[in-house]
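User: I'm preparing a small set of examples for a lab meeting where we compare how different chains pack in three dimensions. I only have the primary sequence for this one, and I'd like the structure in token form so I can line it up with the others. Please keep the answer compact; I'll paste it straight into my notes.
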Amino acid sequence: MFARIKEDVQSVFRRDPAARNTFEVLTNYPGLHALLLHRAAHRLWRHRLFWLGRSLSTFSRWLTGVEIHPGAKIGRRFFIDHGMGVVIGETAIIGDDVTLYQGVTLGGTSWNKGKRHPTLGNGVVVGAGAKVLGPFEVGENAKVGSNAVVTKAVPAEATVVGIPGRIILKSVNEEPLKAVDEGRRKKMEENFGFDAYGLSEEMPDPVARSIRSILDHMHVVDERMNSMCKALQRVDKSYTKPDVPSIDEDQIDCFKEAP
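Assistant: Understood. Below is the structure token output for the 259-residue chain.
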């Protein structure tokens, strides 16, 4: 038992740079308190002492702000940072080295008995305020972004962001269009009223990336059309390049105001 407690304390040091010493961790980390109390409650639950298990779980919720059903199965080196508002349902299964931040819900979407809550693989990280709802699996080393709402299975090594949760995967074969001029793309984005929600490339949004890809493609097509028009003018001096219709300002305004 003491070896497991020592292991849990070391996991706090590995994942929280604010932790200074063992005494501080043991006395001031509600996530660790919730985990230790859950182990006792889960032991009671497995011995069919359901009322005692639920009562200890309720006491833990009052003490730490973390609600873990005594029937939930939790692996080793589990870490809840800050802890307040975390809810873990009865049939949830959590692997080793999993990290949850404050406000996370591992909940269900059905009132039927049986498996109702998610299964988190080893090394999963779930950001603050995220909701993972349903009896599906989140693969090993996957990451769920803050405030995301996930209702479908997540493959290993993937990152999920947004509402509803959208999966971001790094493609090995993905190569940027080298012909794209960054300045011109930014100008096109401004003309269409497109703003990537204030996100940087370090915090990608799949919708923003898709729109940027479309703009990049439009830019390349535009350059090729210009080259074709110049070639036609060299062949036929009477050929004149048609004017490109201007963008309706009213349509731009509508696009900017659209939710």
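A couple of notes for your slides: Residues 133 and 208 are 25 Å apart (CA to CA). Confidence is low (pLDDT under 50) at residues 170-179, 192-203, 251-259.

User: Perfect, thanks.
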